Amino acid sequence: MKRALVLGAGMVSRPLVRYLLDQPGYFVRMASRTAAKAEAIIGSHKQGEAAALVVSDDKALEKMITEADVVVSLLPYEHHVKVAKLCIKHKKHLVTTSYVSADMRALDSDAKAAGILILNECGLDPGIDHMSAMRIIHDAEAKGGKVTGFKSSTGALPAHEACNNPFGYKFSWSPRGVLLASRNAAKWLEDGKTISIPGERLFENYYLQDVPDTGTFENYPNRDSVPYKEIYGLKDAATVYRGTFRMTGWCETMRNVAALGWLQDKPLVGFSGKTYGDLTAHLVGTTAGNGLARAVAAYLELKPYAAIVKRMDWLGLFGDRRLPADKDTPLDYLNVLTLDKMAMPKHERDMVVMHHEFVIAYPDRKDFVTSTLVDYGIPNEDTSVARTVALPAAIAVKMIFEGKIKETGVHVPVMPGIYNPILDELETDVGIKFTERITSEPTK
Predict the structure, then answer these.
(1) Is 424 among the catalytic positions?
(2) What's the pLDDT tens digit per position in 307-334?
(3) Potential cystine with 251: which of 78, 180, 203, 404 (Cβ 3.0-4.6 Å)?
(4) Which of 69, 110, 125, 364 does the annotation list as catalytic?
């Protein structure tokens, strides 16, 4: 019996666990701080077990790792390195869906010495984005082409029929993660020049992009794209850009939410209010009450009737709802409010949109290639985000169990031996597939 340990029972974990439980000869232990969440996913399956685990309990965590063959960490990213070190100590393979941190990458030689694979970024974004891009890049290179431009953008959004709140967004994964990402600085290559944007100006740097047969979205830069020139082997590329899609209106609204101070993750000095309106008033130096919306508009240099102000009012930032007693920072207060007001109901569909653009130079022509994934959640079952994040990792675990991945050390899925089987199974068995379009211009 092959044994998998899944750490975390969050919003994207169910498809991974159910996939592994459906494989003959696998046993899955799912460990979560709240055991009931794991129990709801495992159900009565005889090859599964739910367990309670507090990640700070190092002895309990280590014991569970020693009893597994492969570990999947769906914990918050800050816990991955601790898990990885224990996996190295006990020679257990590890899969995550999170970005590789510098501390994780530093474990490469230790993982190789232990003979184990630590496969990171094996989800949606990061994950499917890497795999689908590398398939086209490697194919172009095999045909004698040079990729001179590359752009890749992804959005986890409500389906159009479910886009029915003023923010044009619903949370099908961790709200805190979305809010934290709103503070990231960004960097990319554009026509040979490096462009850097500080976090406070992130949402000032977006453009509108039409995705064929899907819609028009705001596209803003996603973290640091520059390393992907090397990661993807794009030695001839003058443009390398990775972006995020949102419905129109998001960027300007979130730019102003950030300008108010609602994305701060430290307690506010001198604040003693009790309500969301009290906190907003404190941030702009006024008092809560009927004039708060107008005061916020003036603070942000907006008209009182601006759509941004109306969205903040709808969300509850000016109201008398009490702040949660178990939180103490604006970011965490906002996290509670957004999850309540902007959650994805089970009966609605979410939508994942991923869109790649390549410029490929051949001796006789230049090809402009787009590759687009549009996937929808299944009402009352799994969201598209859950499926597209969890299933690549689940397939990778199966490949490790079957001995189909020979690499050791710290990796991301940019090798054909990893990405081809995952993409093929996603397309044939699940229907998660890309549509490619090619236009050509002769160069001679």
Answers:
(1) no
(2) 999 999 999 999 999 999 999 999 999 9
(3) 203
(4) 125
